[in-house]
Amino acid sequence: MRVIQDVAEMQSLALERRGRGTSIALVPTMGALHEGHLSLVRLAHEHGDEVDVSLFVNPTQFGPDEDLARYPRALERDMELCREEGVTTLFCPGAEQVYAADHSTHISETRLSLGLCGEHRPGHFDGVVTVVAKLFNIMLPSVAVFGQKDFQQVRVIQRMVRDLNMPVRIVMAPIVREADGLAMSSRNRYLSGAEREQALSISKALRDAEDAVAKGASDAEVLRTSVEAGISDAGLKVQYVACVDADSLEPVENLDRAALLAVAAFVGNTRLIDNVVLRLERPGC
Ligand code: AMP
Q1: Is the shortest distance between the CB of 127 and ligand 1 below 6 Å?
Q2: What residue numbers bound the domain in which 201 lies?
Q3: Is the pTM higher than 0.85?
Q4: How many domains does the chain have?
C-alpha cells in the first residue's frame, strides 16, 4: 500500500493509472476508522480494479463551535487497517496541502443541503461538497462509496455529481451497527459508559418506528413524534427528528413513498446521527 501525503504526487499517480485503464473506487473518510468504514472499503473492491482511501479531517466542514480540534486521529492504526483490507493507496494530506492559504473558490449545493443537518450546521455541506470535488479532481476515481449513516451527505454528493457532470458513480453502503444497535461512528469513542447506554435510545427508537411501519403505521408525524419522545425520555437533547422523502429530502406526511426517518441528538457534548429508510410494504407490491 502506498501512503501519499502530497497532492501533486497523488494526482500524477491518478493520471498514470487512468492512462493504464485502471479503475479506482474511492472511499473518502476522516479517519479513526471502524467497521463502518471498512465495510465501505470491502464494497469498493466490488466496484473498481483498485481501492483508494482518503483520510482527511476537513476543516471547512466543521463549524466554529464544533469538534475539529478534538476529532479523533489514529493514523498508524488506520494505515494498518487499510493495509489489511487490500487498499492500494491511502491519501492523507495535511490541510495546508489541500487548501491554499488564499483559496477563494468553493462549491455550494443549494437545495438538498438546506434541511436536516444543513439547517443546524451552516456551511457544513459547502465544506463537504468542496472537499469531495477536490478529492475527485486529485484522485480521479470512477466510483466513490459513501455510507447511508450520512444519508443527506450521499444525496447532496449525488446531486453535485449530476449537476456538475462529474464522471464518478456514487454508491451508498448500508449502516454498520454495534451488536446492540448503536450506529458505528468515530465519535462514539467520546461517550462515557453511561452516555453510551443513553445513546442506544436513538437506534432503539428508529427500530421501534420500523416495527410500527411493518405493522401498518404510515403517519409520518406520529412516527416522528414517537422517535423524538423515545430519545428525549432517555435524556438526550434532540437536535432534529425528521421524516422526509428519501429522494427530495422534503418533509412527508405519510409513507406512500420511501421515506427517510433521520435523527440528530446530543448525548452530553457529543452529537450523534442515525437514520432508517421506511417503506410501507403493501400486499402484492
Ligand atoms: P467519516 O469518517 O465519519 O467522514 O465517514 C466516512 C464515510 O464512512 C462516510 O461515507 C460515512 O457515511 C461512512 N460511515 C461512517 N459510519 C458508518 C457506519 N456506521 N456504517 C456505514 N458507513 C459509515
Answers
A1: no
A2: 186-278
A3: yes
A4: 2
